[in-house]
Each structure stands twice: as C-alpha cells, then as structure tokens.
Design a protein that fits this description.
- The chain has 180 residues and is mainly alpha-helical.
- The protein contains nine helices and no strands.
- Helix 2 crosses helix 3, helix 6 packs across helix 9 and helix 7 crosses helix 9.
- The chain starts with 13 loop residues before the first helix and ends with a helix.
C-alpha cells in the first residue's frame, strides 16, 4: 500500500516534510527512472531528468493538494520533464539523429542497455512516434498502466488514449516490417 498517499503533507513541519520527501524519493526513484528511460532512452539523460523531477516536486510540494495520488503527481511531472527534454533536443537537432538507424547502434553500445537487437529496433521504432503516442505506448506496453489511470495522469479521455495506443502499435508493426 502506498503510505505516502495517505499522508497529508500540507500541515507538517519542515523536518517532517524532509523525511516524507526522502521516503517519497526512496519509494518512487526506480519506477520514475524507468518511465523516463523509456521515453528518452539514454541512461544519463534519464538520471538527469529524474533529478529534475525530484527538484521540481520538492519546490512545489506546498502546492500538492492530496487530490491525486502522489505517484500520479510524480509521474505527470516525470512525463512532462521527459517531453520537455525531447522538445529541447529536437530544437537543437541532436535528437533527430537518434531517430535514424544510429539509435539501435547507440543503444547496443550503452553499458546500461541490456536488450538485444530486437529490443533496440523496438526502441528505434518507438523513437519515431509522435510524443503523445510514444508516452501512451510506453505507459501501456512497459508499465501495463490502465487507460483510466493514464487518463487522470495525462488529462485526456480513455478513448483518445486507446486510439493513440492502437495507432502507435500499427506504426511500430509497420516499422518492423520495413526493417526485415
């Protein structure tokens, strides 16, 4: 059970908040890292973004109103930070090179990547998806997240999410067929 979801952080002392936040970091670091990593692909980038997520969460802890689960709030921050990172990379044209055939090679060379060529090709296919489809695909495929939970996190309808997922699957399937 997620104990931090039951904690009212709005009426705590500074020391209490530090301990609560430390517990939050310990509880969510790994799952947030993997959500971020599936979006940005690179280990170092994922670590940097994870640090930014926790900094942003700490700075806005007073604004958290216990209306959503802490996990939902953190995942939303993580997704937004990841997408912001991708947008910045695209604007500097660094990320564009990652969407071609070099992405698979870069992933295979990454010390932290433990997949095979098929997994690298899947990541390459996912990298070609538009941002929203990429996020929906990753949350559904890797995290097996329910559409209802995604809907709350991404502030959109379940129908739109299902459509995005199915379009993403179709595009990924086509990508695999074209790279046989």
């Amino acid at each position: 059970m997620d104990q931090t979801n039951k904690t009212d952080i709005s009426c705590r002392t500074s020391d209490d908040l530090k301990q609560i936040f430390s517990d939050i970091v310990n509880q969510y670091s790994e799952s947030l890292y993997w959500k971020i990593r599936h979006i940005v692909l690179n280990h170092d980038d994922a670590n940097d973004i994870l640090q930014n997520v926790f900094i942003k969460a700490w700075k806005s802890l007073d604004d958290f109103q216990n209306k959503a689960k802490i996990s939902t709030w953190l995942y939303r921050i993580a997704i937004n930070e990841s997408l912001d990172f991708i947008r910045k990379q695209k604007s500097s044209a660094v990320f564009e090179a990652d969407t071609d055939d070099t992405l698979a090679n870069r992933l295979m060379a990454d010390d932290y990547f433990d997949g095979d060529e098929t997994v690298a090709l899947l990541q390459q296919a996912i990298a070609t998806l538009p941002e929203v489809q990429r996020v929906v695909f990753n949350l559904r495929y890797y995290d097996e997240m329910k559409y209802s939970e995604m809907s709350k996190m991404l502030n959109t309808t379940e129908g739109a999410l299902k459509a995005s997922y199915h379009i993403a699957v179709k595009k990924i399937t086509e990508y695999f067929k074209s790279h046989d």
